[in-house]
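Comment thread on ticket #2218

A.B. wrote:
> Attaching the input chain for the structure job we discussed in standup.
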Amino acid sequence: MLPVHVPDLDEISAAYAFTRRASVETPLIEADALARQCGAARVLVKAESLQRTGSFKFRGAYWRVSRLTPQEKQRGVVAYSSGNFAQGLAAAARMAGVSAKIVMPQDAPAAKRRGAEAHGAEIVSARHGDRPREEVAAGLARTIAAEEGRVLLHPFDDAVIVAGQAGAGLEAIEQMERLELPAPDLVYCCVGGGGLIGGVALAFHYLRPRTRVIAVEPEGYDGMGRSLDNAAITRVASGTATICDALQATAPGEAPFAAARRAGIGHVAVADAPVRAAMRLAFETLKLVLEPSGAVAIAALMQAEGSLAGQSVLCYATGGNITFDDFARIVSG
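C.D. wrote:
> Ran it. Output below, let me know if you need it in another format.
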């Protein structure tokens, strides 16, 4: 078996230099209320929920589409996604003049489907029944790629995607330098399949090696955590219900797992109740509207309960694609 490629500093820097032309520089927000709750000396929240298309996914998608050959662009692309990668890829493909077809689970949020369609993507629904929805959607995407000749793009298990997502880490490092702030002691970041955590972990590993990166997953979908503990990719067999619709991958991808291991990250899992509390705190104190999956890193800090005394923390708020009605319903429990 060939070793999995891990992007080096030159690769992630090149990706960031390109993607920053189209991406938004998302703000670093001082989170005093969150710092008081978790006991940290300081907490900064990187609001990737304010990124183009409402999540960090645009960074990796834009870089991946830019790497297509002219012939591949002519063929068009196909991918699967529960919603945020769908929107990021749809926008990136439209900007490049590339046809995009995206398979989404039938129970994916309707607002995310509408968002992807608004950017010009053709959406195909996948009925997964009792099977893992990622597995069913991926299979249908592979079938479409074979039948239509489209280029199959993976939402996270791709070293190019990992390199593109690293921009969220490099940008935060740049911003902290401009503010003359020291490197954080800890970085908390959500994990689904691992594309973001892989990229962010590499950025800090190469440039701020003393910073410890912590992967945060929903309980029952902690494939990255179990894989790190076992030193091998481990799939969770979970039918656990979770409000974190975008973080239901049952195992990390090989590319992000290799990046996470290279960087030596830690991990933690959170239940739904702290996620609801995190959504409320972000709304009331940071003025951020977050979907559940975008709030898991904040939830992890909230349940730290004083164990972070004296630590400086950077926390990623990763997605805000949620309707008002769903936000109100979820936060109210």
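A.B. wrote:
> Thanks. Noting for the ticket: The chain has a mean pLDDT of 95.
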